[in-house]
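Need a sequence for this fold. Nothing fancy.
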């Protein structure tokens, strides 16, 4: 899959043909979710509209991007990292605060 500015490599398993998952910060992600996480890491404060433009070539809704962010956070739940932010301030990868 290729977005407007972002080439998303999808490698297939040579044995079964399934799309292989990628690891980021110890979490297993699909290629699209890994691309979104990479963008958030490279451009702190990036907005959902910009992610939609770069990754999906404006072919989807920014609400879909927010759903992907939520699913990425679910995958990162066992790590020390979380994507924080939202509509007005953009998204950024943050180190999770320890529970008190």
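Here you go.
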């Amino acid at each position: 899959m290729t977005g407007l500015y972002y080439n998303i490599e999808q490698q297939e398993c040579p044995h079964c043909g399934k799309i292989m998952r990628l690891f980021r910060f110890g979490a297993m992600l699909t290629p699209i979710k890994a691309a979104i996480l990479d963008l958030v890491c490279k451009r702190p404060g990036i907005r959902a509209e910009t992610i939609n433009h770069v990754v999906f070539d404006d072919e989807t809704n920014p609400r879909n991007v927010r759903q992907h962010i939520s699913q990425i956070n679910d995958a990162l739940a066992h790590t020390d990292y979380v994507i924080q932010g939202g509509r007005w301030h953009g998204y950024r990868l943050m180190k999770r605060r320890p529970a008190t």
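For context: The first helix runs from residue 31 to 42.
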